[in-house]
Amino acid sequence: MTIFEQTFHLYQRFYAQRSVLTDAPPLTLDVDDLDLVEFSQDQAFNEISGVASYLIGRSDIRKMPFKEALNVVQKAYSNQPFWYDLLMDYLGLLLDKNEKDLADQGIAIQERAEAVLDKINEVEARRKALIELYALKIEAEHFSVDARKLIRNYLKMMKKDAKKAWEVLISNPAYFSPIITKNGAGVQILSPAQAIEENKRLAQFMKRLKG
To answer: How far apart are alpha carbons 137 and 140 in whole angstroms?
Structure first.
């Protein structure tokens, strides 16, 4: 039985006792003229919670620790089978509803987390595309530098201080990725002076590229 159906049938049972619950909070839904399609679950649950609270002498049974509410019902109604069963069924509904609410919250949290993750993945994909775009342009000019490392480190600094990152990029790009002076075999391909000139050329290129 669903939470909706449990609420409907329990409300019917409480409603049937309205003549002896004259001092209790009112039950305003006329279940004789309602069916499941028209039934307001939230309103009904609030109303029967009010009656259950009245029966155990508490302001709101829903705000009590479950074990405490259970103990009160057992002590107060163990010798009154009808009300005992009715209140125990209410507590069962309360427990089921709380579990469902928690499950729904868990689903909502998971959906939000997935949406955030999708956004992160989207941003990361754009970042990788941007790195690749500029790296390819640098590589096309055959600069002696690790182009992808340069752009990655530039973007990292840009997040913290965009103005400083730009100033460094167009004055000393080797800060982000050192000029390569030796090839893979360890043979020197650029002298220190040539490396300085390469850095200057790269700085001018980056200025034109970004501008």
So the answer is: 5
Predicted TM-score of the model (pTM): 0.52
DSSP code of residue 32: G
Q: Are 176 and 150 in contact (CB under 8 A)?
A: yes
Q: Give the bridge partners for 182, in sequence order.
A: 188
DSSP 147-204: HHHHHHHHHHHHHH-HHHHHHHHTT-GGGTSPPP-B-TTS-B-S-HHHHHHHHHHHHH
- Distances in whole angstroms, Cα of residue 103 to Cα of each of 72, 94, 111, 121: 27, 14, 12, 26
Q: Which positions ≥6 away from 64 have C-beta within 8 Å?
A: 58, 72
Q: What are phi and psi of 80, to 5 degrees?
A: -125, 80
Amino acid at 99: E
93: which 2 tokens? Answer: 């509904």
pLDDT, one tens digit per residue, over 105-127 is: 787 878 888 888 888 888 888 88
- DSSP β-bridge partners for residue 188: 182
Render pLDDT for 47-87 as a digit per residue (tens, 0 to 9): 999 999 999 999 899 888 888 989 999 999 889 999 999 99
**Closest among 46, 41, 56, 48 to 3, alpha carbons compared:** 41
Structure-token pair, residue 5: 């159906």
Q: Which residues lie below 8 Å from residue 48, measured CB to CB, with a gap of 6+?
A: 7, 10, 11, 14, 27, 90
CB of 61 within 8 A of CB of 69? yes
